[in-house]
Design a protein that fits this description.
- The termini are far apart.
- It is globular and about 60 Å long.
- The protein has one domain.
- The N terminus is likely disordered.
- The relative contact order is 0.13.
- With 286 residues, the protein is mainly alpha-helical.
């Protein structure tokens, strides 16, 4: 009988980038496979998003019907319908809520196992989250968009680069969301119980990210302040505005560039907070 080869591949110091990509890909794939096991939750979540999509869509269409010229804040009815249905799909991809894994591991002391792994904790959570986002893109993003196409007239992009730019913007939104969720969870290093910050994040993220209504409905000075001074609009508002082409091309590109800056800054800040936390980490009960 042939023996099975149980050897573990060794990471070569001469090919660090290749080995990093291999490890990153394996972690991302593990995140994808993990969420394929939650079939009933996936179906229930898609159904809920579709139900709320109808409610939000009719509300915003009523707003457009009552606005002067039928274009509130520059959005036409087709753009508003697209904003709602694509936003309902992106809600699961970006994942604003429901993640407290890091905070729980800090509370129980299990986070010490993360520090023994040859992968930085930020990367160790980012890679599986990208796998989760890919799963949501396939199984949670597509159904609401298809329902929107069936029952409403949606806006189709007219610029050739809008769709790839939208894909890049969604990727940056996922990275930025993980960075913010990591920072919120990391407060447990100092508070030992992050339920307060997580609850505050849950209450504020949807409003400030543009989930319930477009941020352009706000006064101009407030909308600009949110865009420039906070990363929240980059989580949902920017990808949606890119897709429905509410801005001219130059501003479209500028919004994605600003989104990229915020995503990089959030990851850097998460790494800095993690390094500071490791200096004072005390394993609970150990």
């Amino acid at each position: 009988m042939d023996r099975l080869d149980a050897r573990v591949p060794q990471i070569s110091p001469h090919r660090p980038f290749r080995e990093f990509l291999t490890t990153f890909g394996a972690l991302a794939w593990s995140g994808f496979r993990r969420f394929t096991t939650y079939r009933q939750a996936t179906i229930a979540g898609s159904f809920t998003n579709i139900v709320f999509g109808f409610l939000r869509c009719y509300v915003l269409l009523a707003v457009a019907a009552g606005a002067v010229g039928g274009r509130p804040a520059g959005y036409g009815p087709m753009q508003l319908a697209t904003f709602v249905w694509v936003g309902q799909g992106l809600l699961s991809v970006v994942s604003l809520w429901g993640w407290s894994e890091l905070a729980e591991r800090i509370r129980t002391g299990e986070v010490t196992a993360d520090l023994l792994r040859p992968v930085h904790p930020v990367i160790g959570y980012l890679a599986p989250d990208l796998g989760r986002a890919l799963h949501a893109l396939i199984f949670r993003f597509v159904p609401p968009v298809l329902v929107g196409l069936i029952f409403f007239d949606l806006y189709l992009p007219g610029r050739w680069y809008t769709v790839p730019l939208f894909g890049l913007s969604v990727l940056l939104a996922v990275v930025g969301s993980l960075g913010m969720r990591f920072l919120v969870n990391a407060t447990a290093y100092w508070l030992h119980d992050a339920r307060g910050p997580i609850t505050l994040w849950t209450l504020s993220a949807g409003v400030l990210a543009g989930l319930y209504f477009p941020l352009r409905f706000l006064p101009d000075w407030l909308a600009v302040t949110l865009w420039v001074a906070t990363p929240f609009p980059g989580l949902l508002q920017t990808p949606l505005d890119v897709l429905i082409e509410v801005d001219p091309p130059a501003r479209q590109l500028g919004l994605v560039a600003l989104q990229a800056c915020w995503a990089a800054a959030l990851l850097a800040l998460a790494a800095l907070v993690q390094r500071r936390a490791e200096r004072r980490l005390v394993a609970q009960g150990g």
